Automatic annotation (TrEMBL):
Belongs to the CcoP / FixP family. The chain crosses the membrane at residues 9-30, 67-94. Component of the cbb3-type cytochrome c oxidase. This is Cbb3-type cytochrome c oxidase subunit. Pathway: Energy metabolism; oxidative phosphorylation. InterPro entries: CcoP_N, CcoP_N_sf, Cyt_c-like_dom, Cyt_c-like_dom_sf, Cyt_C_IC, Cyt_c_oxidase_cbb3_su3, Cytochrome_c_Oxidase_Subunit. GO terms for molecular function: electron transfer activity; heme binding; iron ion binding; oxidoreductase activity. NCBIfam families: ccoP. Its cofactor is heme c.
Length: 302
């Protein structure tokens, strides 16, 4: 593996690039040495197709050769000024990273004060401000819509943020903590703990009964006893635990689906979900605006 970070490769690329460019110029020069005097007959290369289609040995037009020479010189000057020769960064010191940082600094200088005007305000007040909501929506569409959807209603495995149902709590401070620090939800496989496939099915029917969904009463009764193993996270009343992110199983809101087959799959195989942390990617002001926007979505649902 050390071979791929050796300085040799930088020199290899630089030498190969320079030789290739200079070689093009030298080749063009050699091909331009032959001159055809005015009135002198031009021969062919000896290649003939279809009996009478011949390749003539006419010299290249002067304007074309000059353009080619200009291209070679331009390439060499460019590689001296800008990166392109292995590890050599160019005399101007330009880099895509540096350009990005410069543009970000300019954007922060221009737009930072606009974002910062909301930073000292209470999240509830920011959520009620029309301008802040519009700015928060643009942030949401940029950073959150890929998982939660442009309407924030989520999809399988990604929670609906507009329905007022929260795994970790829906107050402004908790929402901001979820966005800033991320969340990691984990339900372990319970197939062995509940007694195999039949036990998983019984637990699934008990869970279905909790939210009033169609179920087999006899299986639900069997599953109720086994559910004691699940109560450690979901609570004895199955209403969940925001401290753990354990969902409420009585409200008919399902993150992965509420069918018998899906619940059995969840009990059997467990679930694992990760919400990334955004505190290192977004400024405090943007986090504040985004949190207020997400909080406002659930308030509109009430």
């Amino acid at each position: 593996m050390s071979d791929f970070v050796s300085p040799f490769w930088g020199w290899y690329i630089a030498i190969l690039t320079v030789v290739s460019i200079v070689g093009c110029g030298v080749f063009l020069w050699f091909q331009s040495k032959a001159k055809v005097k005015k009135g002198e007959a031009v021969g062919t290369t000896g290649h003939v197709w279809d009996e009478d289609l011949a390749e003539w040995n006419n010299p290249l037009p002067g304007w074309w050769k000059n353009l080619f020479y200009i291209t070679v010189v331009f390439a060499l000057v460019y590689l001296v000024l800008y990166p392109g020769l292995g590890a050599f960064q160019g005399l101007l010191g330009w880099s895509s990273k540096g350009r990005f940082e410069l543009e970000m600094a300019k954007a922060e200088e221009t737009y930072g004060p606009i974002f910062n005007q909301f930073l000292q305000q209470d999240l509830r007040a920011v959520a009620a401000d029309p301008q802040a909501r519009e700015m928060g929506q643009r942030l949401f569409l940029t950073y959150c819509a890929q998982c939660h959807g442009s309407d924030a209603r989520g999809t399988v495995g990604f929670p609906n943020l507009a329905d007022g149902d929260w795994l970790y709590g829906g107050d402004p401070e908790t929402i901001k903590a979820s966005i800033a620090h991320g969340r990691r939800g984990m339900m372990p496989p319970m197939i062995d703990a509940v007694g195999g496939p039949e036990g998983a099915k019984a637990v699934a029917h008990y869970v279905l009964s909790l939210s009033g969904r169609p179920h087999d009463p006899k299986l639900a009764e069997q599953g109720k006893e086994k559910f004691a193993l699940c109560a450690a996270c979901h609570g004895a009343d199955a209403r969940g635990n925001p401290q753990l992110g354990a969902p409420n199983l009585t409200d008919n809101v399902w993150l992965y689906g509420g069918s018998e087959a899906t619940i059995i799959e969840t009990v059997t195989q467990g679930r694992s979900g990760v919400m990334p942390a955004w505190e290192e990617r977004l400024s405090p002001a943007k986090l504040h605006l985004l949190s207020a926007y997400v909080y406002g979505l659930s308030q509109q649902a009430k």
